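ENTRY TYPE: paired fold submission
RECORD: A
CONTENT: sequence, then structure tokens
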Amino acid sequence: MKDSPFDTGQPDGTNQSLDLGLPNGGTPELGTTYEIPARCGRAVRVSKGQVLTVTNPAGYQVCDFWIFNADDIGEYSSMEHLHTSILSIFPNVGDGVVSNLRRSLMTITEDSSPGIHDTIIANCDHARYQQLGLTEYHENCADNLRQSMLAIGSHAPAIPAPFNLWMNVPIAPDGSLSFQPPVSKPGDYMSFRADMDVIAVMSACPQDVTPVNGEGTSPAGLTFRVDG
């Protein structure tokens, strides 16, 4: 357990994510498919021009997704800047996922799902599960991000708002939100082309209190690969 809530890089608890670091600071073998176990996270380096594909084998599993500039991790994906860039809360194929410096880190090149994703809701963390009534530690996406960065010899400089792939958060006419099961299907995937050298972090969201990972289901794993 970390000593201070202001140490963004140290997790509140740990899981297998700490042991899933790719070698050479997160460098993948091109064309190789890697697994992200249920409730865990992984980080991968993607060089400019390479394409990262994230796949949802179960169909109902949400992926919390972050991108960091590999040369300066103080620059990272920013959902508030994304909204300004695309004038929408729903990114589509061809849209760049922009940073807190308003530069495109990666561009969405493919999306086999209906395109329902979330860019509004914060990632789950230790405090969120306490608010939901849990008293013991619960694995969470914030800690998966922290551990994934530590596993490749880096350190999360912040916990940015995530791009929640396949998460379904409808917005009612009065502005209210609700958590609904994903509408994606088994095997759906998203591909992102790196517009600069980046570190991408993916968390197979451990949320099992609200229905964001489906109803009557348990959190499942994800896969990813990088192609040159």
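RECORD: B
CONTENT: sequence, then structure tokens
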Amino acid sequence: MDVTPALASADAGLAQLAGAIAEPARARMLCSLLDGHARTATELSVLAEVGASTASAHLTRLCKDGLLTVVAQGKHRYYRLASAEAAQALEALLVVAGFSRPLFTPSTPDRLRHARTCYDHMAGTVAVALHDQLLAQQWLLDEGGNYRLTEAGVIGMAALGIDVALLASQRRRFACACLDWSERRFHLGGALGAAVLQLALRRSWAERELDSRALSITPANQQRLMAAFGAS
């Protein structure tokens, strides 16, 4: 039976991906990223038990094959799974192999991990949760790392007293994904992220701690913050 060009191409693509996953060190790197958190090349090299140069070659291969993507944040470069489809495929293979998704264990002190400032906007678990909520309820649309407010988002922000037009006129990014160094997931940065922090401070949902970048946010105030931005 003749093999069509499309089928041959699919076979070759599948074989290439299988080869990328089959190498033990690369498989360990991929599995460690299934928790949704990003990691540096150094962290991945330790997890995979390989040297820095070997890790670099593995990461280059995984990026080239479309399994990983790299995010530059300050002086660091963080690696993440490239797509939800990549994560789903790996999880399916783990199920067949009889294993479950690995857990992420942060080492950041609890008060800084919960809520803190990141330059002029909010970071930590609260900020990551708020970021995810704004995307899930479609107040924000992701346009390749830069965010745009939808009509619902503009209305919601205006109701909270945030002047969207003024923010958009500033000589800085309006809204963007900022990788959280404790959670290794994104929180909201840019002018909009700064406005959200200032709103939280004005409403006393968050209070600055005097001796650090930590923010004090009680469970009740966290609920108020999330509710203000559309949580049911």
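NOTES ON RECORD B: The chain has two domains: 5-97, 110-228. The mean pLDDT is 88.
STATUS: closed
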